[in-house]
Amino acid sequence: MTDETTHFGFRTVPIEEKQGEVDAVFRSVARRYDLMNDLMSGGLHRAWKDALVTALRPPRNRPFRHLDVAGGTGDVAFRILEAGGPGTDITVLDISGDMLAVGREDCGDEGRLRFVTANAEALPFPDRSFDGYTVAFGIRNVPRIEAALDEAWRTLRIGGRFLCLEFSKVDVPLNEAFYEAYSFHAIPRLGGIVAGDSESYRYLVESIRRFPSPGAFARTIEAAGFKRVTVRPLTMGIVAIHSGWKL
């Protein structure tokens, strides 16, 4: 045990305890996770994930090994598989076995997808294993974000691309006030009705507010070794796509 702490929503917790707290959240909401994403975002999460895959541009004419981290239900991985060619091979990694179980059920017998239970901070793959790495709405739940970024850099080949889709900072003041009210009042209530768990969705909203600003997170990505780091805000800054290359 160490004295190191981190945040779990608005609470400060020992860093060793955060992962267990996060696991409990996703164990609770796994079966309703994709439905809640539709309801909370009015379906916008689909367009955001499509934009992520468009940015990735998986090739259709050559092999492409991809790692989708915190991708439990397979929502992003299925899109990449459809966009890529027959040589596209995707590993979906998540620390939550409950989320991965949903993805496996939806996947059926697709042979180019595999589901792996593991921690983003300690990936069970050799150096330079993948051509691409995505993480959508998952990096803010990692206790040691810097460690996860180091692992992303380690497991990408030279020329590989890191892409992160995450909630960001609304950049229109009037919309920001509405968004804050909706997030802290409507989303937990909706979580209670649909998923039977308002507190897990209260944590997810709080975790968004505690996540670094786009500029600060971009600097953290650069510190992990990535080059040509960019930030692309979507939908008035509600979310952003962060991109970096291993060069």
What is this structure's SSE topology?
Elements: E1 5-8, E2 11-14, H1 15-29, H2 33-41, H3 44-56, E3 64-69, H4 75-83, E4 88-94, H5 97-107, E5 113-117, E6 130-136, H6 145-155, E7 156-167, H7 173-194, H8 198-210, H9 214-223, E8 227-234, E9 239-245
Parallel strand pairs: 3-4, 3-6, 4-5, 6-7
Antiparallel strand pairs: 1-2, 7-9, 8-9
Structure commentary:
The chain has 247 residues and is an alpha/beta fold. It has a single domain, classed as 3-Layer(aba) Sandwich (Rossmann fold). It has 9 helices and 9 strands. A 7-stranded mixed beta sheet has the order 5-4-3-6-7-9-8, with helices on both faces. Strands 1-2 form a two-stranded antiparallel ribbon. A hairpin with a 2-residue loop joins strand 1 and strand 2. The mean pLDDT is 87.
Short description:
The protein has one domain: Rossmann fold. It contains 9 helices and 9 strands. It has a 7-stranded mixed beta sheet with strand order 5-4-3-6-7-9-8, with helices on both faces.
* Low-pLDDT sequence parts: none
Q: Give the H and E element order.
A: EEHHHEHEHEEHEHHHEE
| Overall average pLDDT | 87
Determine the CATH superfamily: Vaccinia Virus protein VP39
Number of strands: 9
Beta-strand proportion: 15-25%
| Ends distance | 36 Å
State the domain count: 1
Q: What structural category arises from helix and sheet content?
A: alpha/beta
Count of helical regions = 9
Biggest pleated-sheet summary: 7 strands, mixed
Q: Could you estimate the helical fraction of the residues in percent? A: 40-55%
Radius of gyration: 17 Å
Give the C-level CATH assignment.
Alpha Beta
Assign an overall shape. globular
